[in-house]
Amino acid sequence: MRKRKIYLHMKALEEAKETLALEFGNLRCRTEIIPSSKARGQVTSSPVFVRRPVPGYHSAAMDGIAVKAEKTFGVTEERPRVLTLGKDAVFVDTGDPLPEFANAVIMIEKVQPLDENSVEIRTAAYPWQHVRKVGEDIVTKEMLFPRNHEITSYDVGAMVAAGVLEVEVYKRPRLLIIPTGNELVSPEDADERELQPGEIVEFNSSVLASLAEKFGAHAEIHPIVPDDVDMIRDVLKKGVEQDYDIILVNAGSSSGTEDFTAQLVEELGEVFVHGVTIMPGKPTVLGKIGDKPVIGIPGYPVSAIISFEEFVAPLIYTLRGLTMPPRKTVKAVMGRKIPSKLGLEEFVRVILGKVGEKCVASPLTRGAGIITSLTRADAIIRIPQDTEGINDGEEVNAELLKPEWQIENTLVMIGSHDNTIDLLADELVKTDGRFFLTSSHVGSMGGLMAIKRGHAHLAGAHLLDPESGEYNFPYIERYLKDVPVRVVNLVYREQGLIIQKGNPKNIKGLEDLTRDDVMFVNRQRGSGTRILLDFRLSQLGISGDQIKGYNQEEFTHMGVAVNVLSGSADVGMGIFAAANALGLDFIPVVSERYDLIIPEQFWDDEKIRVVIDIIRSKDFQQRVLELGGYGVSDTGKVLYPKT
User: Fold this and answer.
1) Which residues of the chain have pLDDT under 70?
2) Are residues 69 and 143 in the same domain?
3) Are 594 and 416 in contact (CB under 8 A)?
4) How many Cβ atoms sit within 10 Å of the Cβ of residue 139?
5) Are 185 and 201 contacting, i.e. CB atoms less than 8 angstroms apart?
6) Residue among 590, 633, 639 at smallest CA distance from 473
7) Coil, helix or strand for 420?
């Protein structure tokens, strides 16, 4: 049996980046000469000098008459002067060349025509008044741009105007991306057949290639290479010999028995770093073969992206003759506590929103394999490696992934998950493109606590009070007695048992959850679904200890449904819409009310008003009904305070 390798040369992030910069800081791409008209986004490899002045002649900067200024001296309102057209003055429009005798222009508004041969002026001109002199904009032989200048669209115009029709630039860096792994299937093959257990669609390379383009490089994706050390070695050798500037090997950088990247880079060249103290992204390999950077990118999608952005992107900028700019940051407060491991700098994906006067950050799912945590993220927060996490309400620096104006116009919803929230977010963008809705699924009680702390514009809740049988109101009066709120009904929905198609375990109700052959998947503590389940179980005299999988928790109804679909669970508690979306069967348990809780201080906020109008619209309600398992009889009604 092949032994597992340990991480070699483990380094902190900044130390690893410095190591890479010291090795490749002077590396540049080769140069080429291209038409200036095609040079936007390219970087000059040598200074650019003007070939002709702009403008190339003295020209009028105003409509009026061209004159010799000295012949107007002494003119005033009381002592006007008549000028002969063609001799002392010539009519000109803006941009016209001046006659040889002229060195000034008098505005047309200050010229009084007398007849077709003469005009009267009542104001004197001074030399070069209202004139664009030769070279006023660009002077011949002056430096237009220095080397290592990124060419903009405006620069293209300046070059063409200055007679610079060709420009020497650095070639765009070329990357070779080598995906490795026996489990990988190309997107094309996956489209033509059903994936088998253990097979994964190879999409990392598409993400990395897109990132390469974003940062100004071209990328080529090599066909998938199996976990065969000889085959990977052969591809690496050929890649280094060809015209690529950076080689990326995706996966195989960890310490498993089939992770060959570090071994092969060491064999063919040199490894500087094997393992960086960041999470995600720890298995990154930094090295070189010959004079070319070779980087081992981890296989998990989020790890791969963070590794690329921290190490490959700065290399691309270096090869282009540029320095990578830092991300824009904003101050934010954490919406809830985030624990973290000592010894690793953690990159946490968060959603952001301006709630009142503060920007609130709510963490998304943190798994290194969950790429949707980046598609949904508004920002990245870094937890230093010498801390054990960030406390609720603690101020942090958030590195923006989206424009700041979008954060300002985002509604923050925290609380219980429901499939209709995605519809609401979509309808909001469709109705008013200025506004956005982000949601963090922490359960109904988590939503109430977010409202109490001032961390959300609205919360979704379906909290059943066992004593009164009422939803939400008793909890609001208990936990939000100092926070005036309004409660708007969103939907009524069917809660029940999500089971596998065809019900192979012959599950009939909650009583069957205690069977030895039944595996359950639960919702997290504090969720309305969990409270409802526990209430119903208590009525039946069943404790959680009697149920296999009772402590296996998911944060969304779709998460529960996916567990059942995959076979990791036989049954879970959730809504009909989630079961219906994945083609699973469903056993109804109860119809419940799901409400939006909105602090009074935000009730008149324009974003909230747009959301309320959407909820009350027939189009939204029809889309909700099409999901199945929902009722809209009270949708949009204000239920609390009771009138």
Assistant:
1) 1-9, 135-140, 252-259, 367-370, 643
2) no
3) yes
4) 15
5) yes
6) 639
7) helix
